């Protein structure tokens, strides 16, 4: 009886992520079969390089969604952070100061959101909406035009790369992104904070009555998300070598899609960061395939992602239905 | 249009307290404050004159510009009242414009009223279908509204692009232009359409039982279903209406510029709509809703855009300004602020309303 | 038998302050506690003393303030007046974690655990053993398994909590309380969802803890259980303390009269019985279910319900009674069998279909499936009627007023204010409003699932009387209750459920007693 229960539990909690894996495998297979050079190390390595910032965003978003909330401001905060970095470096502030500073900017915005959500009991949707407006507004004020980044330290950091196994290219952004994933994994599965995040997703009232520090945690998840957005902005700046106030528009949707496709339930309580990483890879693969296809215009990406999201969502729904 | 005031047991003083606690108090105050600021900086702000046979002036501009948002926010209020949300409205706005203008552009006689009518019909029909699609996902398949409409939001722009083939379609068509820029009986056509639809829906929700049933579904969907309320039909309907109204808004917007820009049409309009609804006092958690509140909310947002220009602030600062206003209104409207303003004795409940938690099974 | 005039409230027979059984000092002392909510004084100057090594019961009707007192003690609510001392030191708890830290652990009525986490996690959450700063999962599972063994629970600590029954979840909640080595354990209605075996198991644990010196506060409305387990009891009524009594020194009759403030004679009057002189089972049944079932829910069953008849469904928690009710009401869709109503086939595929056939269903979960909290009493009562008419044809205001006033008076809804929001009424009155909703639709079959659960004695009797009346006037009723006496008192026929199966059916008579039904349940219908 206990064994059946264990197997059943295993299935339910991990099934969505298994689904993600299947889709990932299918996409890789499709690409490999259809195009030459698709399965090359270069293509796969680029997947990580080009989406490093999205991985970081998705990790932060996972924390928030696990508690049953949502963060619509990450795209704007990403832009704010990259724009601030570009602006400061253009003004001569050394990279060593700028880099931690812009991450902190993200954290501070996250803190403000957290306070709005918890102390003022404002819905996360609305609070992060306001934050998104705020961050985007600041962007326009700081950088009406795109600011190129020429700081030597920064450029050196951005260009740094190494070759794993001699073939697989890894840039500094990838290293940072993977580090973030590792830290997030540790936080979620081995610390009180992480378990409280899951508990809140399971039932905020229950978590509170169990004596868990719900208030602190709820605020902290938004700080985490904001920090990740700030960090993502850095990675994006490294990627684009500039600060542009219209960057990151609708990127929060990509992050949310990645998290959902990665097996996290929007209602909270169930999900894994590793799943979100897989979700980002899925999105990246779709973009890659469409680029390879050549004849399809880029707006098909949106349609395909939308369709994939639909499939996943319906599947998640069927999974829940069969449970009852 | 009714605005129901959620009255907690009145601890503050009678009449004045009741006014302050009324759901519409703060939004109306904000609107009045904006108008005052505008008039102070430009005394001719509130003046309305007659020009070219129609009304002319800043207030008229506000009324005309707010028409698309008014329609979108109308649908959004109903959707939110049923505990849902519709993120796809911007995409539908884009699609509607794309469909109408593409049809007119490729038709033999772009300037004929018949062509325009068909174009409008097609656009509205497709918008309705998209709304029905959203409703299907939510009411029948049981997908969460955020996600269900997120799908259309993501894919929808791609679809609009497909229709316009990635170009910004422009046409010249006098009948179509009247939608957004024309005047009738001195008033802007767009405003007449928007206010007319708004009034119709308001009448419908309060004269019939539709309003109460929508609220019941939003407050407790399971209980409503068991009580025999056709919850599924109601949810489906509000999403369909949201799609339809967004399509109408899209037509007005496209008519304003006589162009269909799949990428930018209706960008962020869902955010403005949601904000209008929230400013107006309807809770995002669903349940009781206030159409009059949404009305004021839309006016606030429309006035804001003009205020920024009037005050000589760079338009680049508008989003920031909006954000600050939004933050301010949200804070003031937050449950915590409401409680404090109602001069309640210090009731600190970390688990929310006490009566809420005592209505459970074997109650002590 | 002392009679207490209705309305008198006072402290009687209280022990000397400071001294307790054996002269021990109280581990928790609450003095003059007052708690106010908007418009309502939930607690007014209440005293409570908990001594170590003692089980103290907190008694009172619905709305008497039991839950509020506990939440005041554990920091969920703030107190407006009065003092709490723990171990002699005055303390103020600003959040539940503080109460826990002071050694007060609580197991709430609604199992407040996280169903998405594992059993081990739920038990150890917040107190997981660490290794090098990180949570040591292996040690956590091991410790949790140990605690489970102490409770006599044989489940996999790594299994998801949500996969287990409410009864098991409750015991897990109690395990959790013991992890923090509490000096005080508060059990708020812990047995409402447990069957007899589980209650026995729980009581064994409670006694063991008591003998170890833990002070236990036991809140329950099951009078027999209170007499079985408690050493001392405090009675609350309308937010004030009526008195504190050693259990051995107060009779059940006295206790109940203290709780409701009425005399024994009145109590006997309240004992309602259905008129069983009439045998309604003749002619075509109003509803005939043949082989009706739903996979995973309940095995195919047959059931006839005649006009003017009360059919009771008896069985333990989880035996399938509610599932049967939901199938009959269209709340769940059957995947086997057929239903005939007045001889004609009927497909009850959703609640709307059942309502169209004059079937009304009152769910056991008031909060989730009945109460539309933010609407007024008036709107709630006419909701069913309005839904029947559709959204277009609004009920005329005068008709609504007439209906609402009629039912508020007939069912004695308090406060009798049709414009009050339903969520501000007590549980018992909410139940009455919900009943009014169903009665207003003039059904021919009324299905009531646990209509008297969590309701004070007075309201309970009112509802029972209502059921008997309705049957006498020709309405069919399907009545579900966990209290077998209630089922016996009201039913013409009783269907016995066990393990998702209908195992027996018997015609009620004066010779049939609780033991007979219990035996049927135990034997599974095999004789």
Describe it.
The complex is a heterotrimer of chains A (324), B (364) and C (527). Mean pLDDT of chain A is 87; it is low at 1-9. Chain A has helices at 2-34, 41-66, 74-90, 95-118, 124-142, 152-159, 172-190, 192-202, 204-209, 214-240, 251-261, 273-293, 299-323; strands spanning 147-148, 161-164, 168-171, 242-243. Chain A has a single domain, classed as ABC transporter involved in vitamin B12 uptake, BtuC (Orthogonal Bundle). Chain A has 324 residues and is mainly α. With 364 residues, chain B is mainly alpha-helical. Chain B is built from 17 helices and six strands. In chain B, a hairpin with a 2-residue loop joins strand 1 (49-51) and strand 2. The longest helix of chain B is centred in the middle third of the chain and has 29 residues, at 113-141. The relative contact order of chain B is 0.19. Residues 1-12 and 344-364 of chain B have low confidence and may be disordered. Chain C has 527 residues and is α/β, with parallel strands linked by helices. Chain C has a six-stranded mixed β-sheet, with helices on both faces. Chain C has a six-stranded mixed β-sheet with strand order 18-19-20-15-21-22, sandwiched between helices. A four-stranded antiparallel β-sheet of chain C has the order 2-1-4-5, covered by helices on one side. In chain C, helix 4 (137-151) crosses helix 5 (166-179) and helix 15 packs across helix 16. The model of chain C is unreliable at 1-19 and 263-267 (pLDDT under 50). The interface between B and C is large, with 46 and 75 residues.
What attributes characterize this protein structure?
heterotrimer; A: 324 residues; mainly alpha; ABC transporter involved in vitamin B12 uptake, BtuC; two-stranded antiparallel ribbon; two-stranded antiparallel sheet; 13 helices; 4 strands; 76% helix; 4% strand; disordered N terminus; B: 364 residues; globular
